[in-house]
Amino acid sequence: MLATSMVFAGCANDNNKDDDKNEPAVEESKDKETTETTDEKEDTTDSKETTENKNSENNDDENTENVDKEDKKNDEKTADESSTEEGNVVLHRAYPATEGRSFPTIVVATSGDKIVDAFIDEYQFFDKNSEYKGVPNSDKEFGEGVKEGRILASKIDNEELYSDEMKEAGGEATLMDNYNAIIDYVKGKTIDELEDFISNNEDEEIIDALTGATFKSTPELLKYVVDTAKDDMFTISGTAENPDDITLKYAIGAPHGEKSFGNAVVALEGDKIIAASIDEYQYLEAGKTKLDVKSDFAKSYAKDNIVLGSKLENDEAYSTLMKDKAKATKSIKENFEAIENFVAGKTINEVKDVIADAKPGEAIEAVSGATLVDTAGYLQLIVDAAEK
User: Fold this and answer.
1) Residue (of 352, 351, 372, 377) closest to 362 by Cα position
2) Half-sphere exposure (CA, 13 Å, Cβ side) for 324?
3) Tens place of pLDDT for every residue, the chain, 388 residues?
4) CA-based end-to-end distance of the chain
5) Among 50, 92, 283, 325, which residue's Cβ finds the most Cβ atoms within 10 Å?
């Protein structure tokens, strides 16, 4: 089983170096990989989310993260409308406020008022010279957001190493033992039942009640799971034959460029994808985040005002910049939802076939509402999660 106004840290278009030295990197296209950049010798940007049919008069504009290839009919049906269609399984994604050393990412699957599965991972900074494996793009531009000598890593991707360190410190359970104890406890219970349990028990009593849990963070993580189940800010639904039979799978990767990394949590029933939840993380100047700026986690930022943020949590500001700088007509949230809606109900092999037919550097017309030229990268991330 199983992140107000802001500016993105990164390079601006070289055409406006003097005026735009602090302008956002709106996920520009890779050097020499698209017609928009072949004549711009000094363009060092790395993203590929650009318009496919850009008019020659716009060749000097900021390259776009989105391209709207849908006609007006499709535009009338937004991703938000699609994501609220009825389904008996709903994936809730949330980022809890914390003052600790880690950045929790929580996804909870509910059916009605009952939790049917949950996923927990935490990203934490470690010594770069340690054996910890960094998140994707840690050795590329994304890694520039980290203080020298530090590296951001997923606890799940380093489960064995992290568990060994916990045992050396006197811990009795592995990381996954603890995560699974929380997940097993919430499965099949209603939100009301879990809230009553939390409010009526002290932390030590909660740890004792969750078989296999020994970490002091257990009560806090349990509360995060319950809070996420109630949070409808970032949700996607699907229909399962039996919601109790779904399994959540997870993967992290680099679906787009070198300035960010992403993750996907997929609800599976057999070989069918019931629902998928995706997000990306990037170091953002004045970015929106629930993490305390004075937390232990924040001490590892290269600059105090450039924080690790979720693109979903920063959707409004991120998408406004895409629109202002690159004439984008779809938000990042709408694009993610379009991709999530596309895979719902499909088998893993069906999604693989779509990826195989995709043309590099182009959006996928079959994925209605998704205008990102890296759509195939996000689909592949979902497949990677489903096949774990």
Assistant:
1) 372
2) 10
3) 433 333 333 333 333 333 333 333 333 333 333 322 223 333 333 333 433 333 333 434 434 444 344 443 444 444 344 344 569 999 999 999 888 899 999 999 999 999 999 999 999 999 999 999 999 999 999 999 999 999 999 999 999 999 999 999 888 899 999 999 999 999 999 999 999 999 999 999 999 999 999 999 999 999 999 999 999 999 999 999 999 999 999 999 999 999 999 999 999 999 999 999 999 999 988 788 877 777 899 999 999 889 999 999 999 878 887 788 767 789 999 999 999 999 999 999 999 999 999 999 888 999 999 998 899 999 999 999 999 9
4) 10
5) 50
Q: Kindly give, in sequence order, each residue whose CB lies less than 8 Å from that of residue 288, ignoring residues fewer than 6 positions away.
A: 3, 4, 6, 309, 313, 314, 317
> CB–CB of 365/354 below 8 Å?
no
Q: What is the pTM of this model?
A: 0.79
Angle between helices 175-186 and 218-230 (to 10 degrees): 40
Nearest C-alpha neighbor of 141 from the set 252, 28, 46: 46
Do 65 and 274 meet the contact criterion of CB atoms below 8 Å apart?
Answer: no
Instruction: Please report, for residues 161, 199, 222, the alpha-carbon distance to residue 203 in angstroms, rounded to integers and kept in the order given.
Output: 26, 10, 10
| 307 in Cβ contact with 298 (< 8 Å) | yes
> Residue 102 phi/psi, 5° resolution?
-125, 165
Return d(Cα 193, Cα 197) in angstroms, integer.
6
The residues spanned by each domain of the chain are: 89-387
Q: Distance between CA atoms of 141 and 31, rounded to whole angstroms?
A: 15
CA torsion, ordered 125, 129, 133, 139, to nearest 10 deg? 90
Pair 228, 92: CB distance under 8 Å: yes
Contact 6, 307 (CB under 8 A): no
Q: Give the span between the Cα atoms of 133 and 70, in whole angstroms.
A: 40
CA-nearest of 63, 80, 78 to 372 is 63
**Amino acid in the structure at residue 58:** N
Q: Which residue has the tokens 């079959």?
A: 366
